[in-house]
Amino acid sequence: MRTQTTIVRFSVLAPILLIVASAPPRALEANEYYYMIVFSAQTGSNEPRLSHTFATFVKATGTGDSAKDYRAESHTISWMPRSLNIIVLRARPEPGTNLDLASSLRWAESVNCRVSMWGPYQIDQELYDRAVKQEDSLRSGRVLYKAIDVRFRGGIASNCIHAVSDLDTDNGLLHAGQGRGDAASYQVVQHLRRWIIAPGQTHPWVAWRLRLNDHPVSRRDLD
Predict the structure, then answer these.
(1) Is residue 61's pLDDT more than 50?
(2) What residues contact residue 137 under an 8 Å CB cut-off, 6+ apart?
(3) Is residue 26, in this structure, part of any structural domain at all?
């Protein structure tokens, strides 16, 4: 009787074991890493109408030990007047445009600006998510451009510096003062520094994936 019971139990379990054994291996869970590069563009004389602050945020998704082989997507915050002609003392806000990275570099080249960059730094996911949300907001047409945006900041209009720095207003706004070009972009990096993982470490492969090696971009140190 005991032998018969054992045979019955085995006959019930055998198909289940066969299904489990033949099931495909469980897919590896993908890793996600996030990165930020902050850029500045300025001429030798650092004229306000020929200076710009912009930033690119990258998400790398994949499996394995090397993030440089992961699939990457990027989002850029590069807020300019739609005309691409910065009129510093313009009285009223004007329609703006959010350029992608390639267009930002082309603009800098067209007005003979040199471009500098801080990073790429690994960052927390939340800052990346805020950047994606800001990009969507700028492209929606709800926000205007204003080079001197003191009276309009906070959703109505913004300049390029604050379009990036206002990703983090948790502890107050960044007031760049008369800063522009390198000085303003450096202030932005410091303002967002709390989101950077290991500020002393950069990840050059991210710049390579963005084809920045094809452009004369100078690397700057955080400190």
Answers:
(1) yes
(2) 143
(3) no
CA distances, 66 to each of 71, 72, 89, 91, 182 (Å): 11, 13, 48, 51, 32
Number of other CB atoms surrounding residue 26 within 10 Å: 6
How buried is residue 129: exposed, middle or buried, by Cβ count under 10 Å (0-12/13-18/19+)? middle
DSSP-assigned states of every residue in 169-217: -TT-----TT--THHHHHHHHHHTGGGEESTT---HHHHHHTTGGGS-E
Cβ neighbours of residue 51 closer than 8 Å, sequence gap 6 or more: 40, 41, 42, 43, 113, 180, 181, 184
| Domain span holding position 182 | 31-218
End-to-end CA distance of the chain: 81
Query: Could you read off the pLDDT of 173-192 as tens digits, one per residue?
Result: 998 878 899 999 999 999 99
Can you give the pLDDT at residue 46?
A: 86
Instruction: Tell whether 157 is covered by a domain.
Output: yes
Provide the pLDDT for residue 67.
Answer: 86
pLDDT (mean) for 31-60? 96
Quote the number of domains for the chain: 1
Sign of the C-alpha dihedral, residues 107, 109, 111, 113?
positive
Q: pTM for the full model?
A: 0.86
The rounded distance, in Å, linking the Cα atoms of 94 and 215 is 30
Q: Is residue 18 part of a domain?
A: no
